[in-house]
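User: Can you predict the 3D structure for this chain?
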Amino acid sequence: MTEGTRARLRWVIKAALAIGIVAAIVLPPSCVRRPTPATHVPPEVTTPTGGLRPVRVLIAENVSNARVSIAAPYMVEPWGKRARGKPAILAQCAPLREGAVQVTKTAIIVGERHFSDDAVHIRIERRAALTVDGRRYRGSLVVLRTGEDQLALINVLPIEDYLYGVLGGETYPAWPAAALEAQAIIARSYALWRMADRRGEPFDLHSTVMDQNYLGMAKEDPRLTAAVDRTAGIVLLFQLKLFRCYYHSTCGGHTEAVQEVFPDPPLLPLSGVACKHCKDSKHYAWKRVITRAELSEALSGRALGSRPVASLAVTRRTASGRAAEVTLGAAGASPAAMAASEFRLAVGPAKLPSTFFQLREVPGGYEFTGRGFGHGVGMCQWGARGMAEAGYSAAGILHHYYPGSELHRLY
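Assistant: Here is the predicted structure, written as structure tokens:
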């Protein structure tokens, strides 16, 4: 071995040791509890043999067809309750290039093959070989009939593979490692909670912000993948149980208690905490002017029926200072109260980023001056970034935003 080779080897060893030290600093092993009989994976998310079952993600709903490419041999299998009594494999198929998936009154069609089933599972023999309408996915695909000529598509894949796509849709690769690890742990915790919650339904998670923004492989990045891998199996529990780990973009200075936004009971980890780390977000402070005509159109059919909005006021606030209730007035009608969270979603998040606002009447409408983006419950993503920039570990970030919770490695 030459001296130059020895020097390079020493450099590689030092770099590897440095990486290990950094990883240990980001998420110290002492912060993560090992499984106990009380913290094993919940039976609702396991297979009959005790392994963790795949996650089922709804990627298309009530569509007439989709373009599918499969860059490897695949098998078509029956799926769901009606699979009993049928052959284990309906067909073995060669790779499919730009084939159509559609349904008729009597069959599901995959490429040129017809299957007289209401649901089929396309199980692919190679990882990351599936493309649906131009977007690549890991895992396999379920085609589910939802009407005479409509179908749903469900991506079925290991939860860690799913998380690669969630981090691509929910955060930024350039953010500090601790923030990415915190996001990975929360996304995993949310997914497992949802898998248990929807265990009797055809799918576990929407691929949109109705659950978590999942983009398949579209925005995967080595830095995001590494954050998922470093935290593999680690979840956040409260009293040794999974809970719905809500999170949002920007809290604007204080997160919100869950019962103020969602029909959930009060929960210590979701009780709301002060946050001084999200000021770099472009949504930290904002101002919007919304005309009465825009409000009337957005709220048509709701509190005031079809009457145009004539007045608007905040009539109740939460402990954090967010609007909890607004009261609307219209000519010839009694004032109508409306939950501020419902009001915001009706108007639209682009026009009204959060309920953390003050309002005043201006000519033709109302000026909203506010802070934050999103519902405000749970982890503030921009706050997590700021805490990581300030030197906090992923464990420190999560214990701040979810007081009383504990990190456990379930698998």
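DSSP finds eight helices and 24 strands in the chain. Confidence is low (pLDDT under 50) at residues 11-25.
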